[in-house]
Amino acid sequence: MQTKSRKLLSVLLAFLMMAGVIAVAPVTASAAAAPGDKVFFGKYPQPWYTPTSPPASPTEGNIYTDADGTEFMRKGSTYYKIEPIEWRVLASSSGKLLLLSEKILDIKPFHPTWVEMTWEDSGMRAFLNGIGSIANPYDYSFIGRAFSAAEQAAIQTTTVHTPDNDPRRTLGGNDTNDKIFLLSMEEVSEYDAFYNRVAVLTNFGGSAYEGGNKYYWCLRSPGLGVIYASPPRSEFPYTKSGYTAEVSPEGVIGEGRETGNAIGVRPAMWVNESSLPAPHTHAWSDWKTDVIGHWKECACGEKSSQGAHTYGGWTEDIPPTTDTAGSQHRTCTTCGYVDTQSIPATGGGGTPDKGIFGTNPRWYGAWWHYLLFFIGFGFLWMWF
After folding, report:
1. Residues 329-337: contacts with CB within 8 Å, 24+ apart?
2. pLDDT tens digits for 110-131?
């Protein structure tokens, strides 16, 4: 009897579920971001901008909204568009993502003056995290400008360890608790597969080019110290450094940037993944080409399938003559790009002079040479 009752109950439940009387939670696919993915979070002034409705009396650093809803900011005599910040996912752990900005977003010194110091006491740390107790060479903080209050709450406070620079015997300093930080030399190499070391500077940071130019970006690791030679001499004690490590425009780690010199800022942070928009899905264009190669491009600026053209054989379009160049073309077998080249004229002396009698023998073509010869010979005969 119990078996029959259970069967009847199962049938009844199945019928109710099919009829929609009992709600069943839908199964959704996870959109978790993976290392190497691009995500957008926060916003920051980046490219140049020309407002259609500029403010009558603009104030340095204020955010304005144009007639079409575009946000922009004035710095100096120039306006900059406020755009979402692109980040690369470097690591994922327990629902949190380690992000590094795709571009160099700003330029500032590691510290207002050239002094020996560590990340803990640097003006760069103050700028990124809005720490008022440390000298900040700017009149604003990165975290305050880039993120809303809700976004700041989603950024995790992280224990940041800066290793000593053993070859230079310079101190990394005490661990810090930060929301925003810079990568260390060790992290640059650790996450190398998931981002590009070569980064471009935004117009707001100081780029003179619309698309941004490659630039140096700062690390939190200490650089040179009293030890310039390698390997180091063990009798020298570890000291604070007046230099920071950096990544060059070619992607090479260096250790000789003075703490008081301006350098590119490429922030990093751990953030709750649930607070981020879904990872960007690329929509690739048709083939784009130039004389060197081809690629496909997403609206986000990412490129794919880049490569040099692979051509078939030449096809003659216009055959050359003795006086006129011809032309030929070949087509890339991947993207269809057409390369056209001229074919030199075959030469052969051109059309011969027909001579004084209108005939073609070549010795008639130079009749005036023979005339001059006989005249000269006649003068010589009369002279002698």
Report:
1. 332/289, 332/294, 334/287, 334/294, 334/307, 334/309, 334/310, 335/287, 335/289, 335/294, 335/309, 336/287, 337/287, 337/289, 337/294, 337/309
2. 999 999 999 999 999 999 999 8
